[in-house]
UniProtKB/TrEMBL annotation:
This is Glycerol-1-phosphate dehydrogenase [NAD(P)+]. It is found in: Cytoplasm. Catalyzes the NAD(P)H-dependent reduction of dihydroxyacetonephosphate (DHAP or glycerone phosphate) to glycerol 1-phosphate (G1P). The G1P thus generated is used as the glycerophosphate backbone of phospholipids in the cellular membranes of Archaea. One of its GO terms (molecular function) is metal ion binding. Keywords: Cytoplasm, Lipid biosynthesis, Lipid metabolism, Metal-binding, NAD, NADP, Oxidoreductase, Phospholipid biosynthesis, Phospholipid metabolism, Zinc. The gene is egsA. It comes from Methanospirillum hungatei. Coiled coil: none annotated. Belongs to the glycerol-1-phosphate dehydrogenase family.
């Protein structure tokens, strides 16, 4: 037998490929929730649905979604308390007989719908009631564990329906946190480029450009982000969607998650619940931008104008805890190289925290 026609090794030609998953429909705007039947009719996911909500978000929008769909679809409901394995198992059981899922709520509810739908291979629709982070559209979910929160792979929603009237009525702290999450893209990008230069990590220029543009728009419009304003919800949700798309293009959370996110996760482990995810990332971004030699004062002033915290004192977190979080950030996802993995000393960490209080 001749071996002339047998290819054992790959050719030296171009062989890159990447599967980018994005939502099929994204609807943002005033009373968008009323157009949910049109979205479902367009994507045709089936006739039976499980609506997942939280205790509060059920009253805010979950009941309204059920009223809109109940005459045309077989509707079941599930209330997700805390996000843990027990809740995920119960939600999986509840969704066994349904064709698709709708998550109506904040990060915990959306992540629950995202994980369950991914495990069961069923589509889900994201209906956020707050603009607190970019998980409303991304393909990754945050799962609390005994060792702290971990980011797990799932899939993005098949559709997003973001009603700016509902979102604008959520506590402003949530929207400010979402803004801080997006503004921290600045330092996430710098960390990614640093890893590229020092470790040869592959980057995506398209993902970087989109992520950076999203942060720049929020900084430019910081004065428009006011409590209770539907226009503010419009601006922030669009930014969160763009940030999520940048991650989909990259195939990872790299364009929106660097050292500031590692700091945020370390802080959550040390003092759970003291800061919202975006709040911690915003403060982390001020400090890591300083280490990168960038304009950290612009990030701080933008966060302040939006109403996001810029110091540990504003969150009633002792400075010493923040110093420990900076030093422990290197233990979070050690494979993700950032400016905080370059040998930060305790003395330097103490200086970073004191810098936050400078006039």
């Amino acid at each position: 037998m001749s071996t002339d026609t047998v290819q054992v090794l790959q050719s030296d030609g171009f062989n890159k490929s990447r599967w980018t998953q994005l939502p099929r429909d994204v609807l943002i705007g005033h009373q968008a929730i009323l157009q949910l039947p049109d979205i479902i009719a367009d994507i045709r996911p089936g006739r039976s649905v499980l609506i997942i909500s939280g205790g509060t978000t059920r009253e805010v929008a979950g009941n309204a979604v059920e009223d809109i769909l109940k005459d045309s679809y077989d509707v079941k409901r599930f209330v997700a308390g805390k996000l843990d394995t027990t809740t995920l198992e119960a939600c999986s059981q509840a969704s066994m007989s349904t064709d698709f899922l709708i998550g109506v709520g904040g990060g915990r509810v959306i992540d629950c719908a995202k994980i369950v739908s991914y495990k069961q291979g069923k589509p889900f629709i994201s209906v956020p009631t707050a603009a607190s982070h970019d998980g409303i559209i991304s393909g990754r979910a945050t799962l609390p564990t005994e060792a702290g929160s971990v980011s797990v792979g799932a899939h993005p929603p098949i559709a997003v329906v973001a009603d700016t009237g509902i979102i604008s009525q959520a506590p402003h702290r949530l929207m400010a946190s979402g803004c801080a999450d997006v503004i921290s893209n600045y330092t996430a990008i710098l960390d990614w480029e640093l890893a590229h230069r020092l470790r040869g990590e592959q980057i995506s220029e398209y993902a970087i450009a989109l992520s950076k543009m999203t942060a720049e728009i929020l900084v430019k419009d910081a004065n428009l982000i006011k409590p209770g304003q539907e226009e503010a919800a419009w601006i922030v949700v669009k930014a969160l969607v763009s940030s999520g798309v940048s991650m989909a293009i990259a195939g990872s959370s790299r364009p929106a998650s660097g050292g500031e996110h590692k700091f945020g996760h370390a802080l959550e482990r040390l003092i759970p619940g003291a800061a919202l995810h975006g709040e911690a990332c915003g403060i982390g971004s001020i400090m890591t931008m300083y280490l990168h030699g960038g304009d950290w004062r612009e990030i701080r002033s933008s966060l302040a104008r939006i109403g996001a915290p810029t110091t540990p004192k504003e969150l009633n977190i002792p400075d010493e805890i923040v110093i420990e979080a900076l030093l422990k950030a290197r233990d979070i996802r050690p494979e993700r190289y950032t400016i905080l993995d370059m040998g930060l000393t305790r003395e330097s960490a103490e200086h970073l925290v004191q810098m936050l209080y400078e006039a």
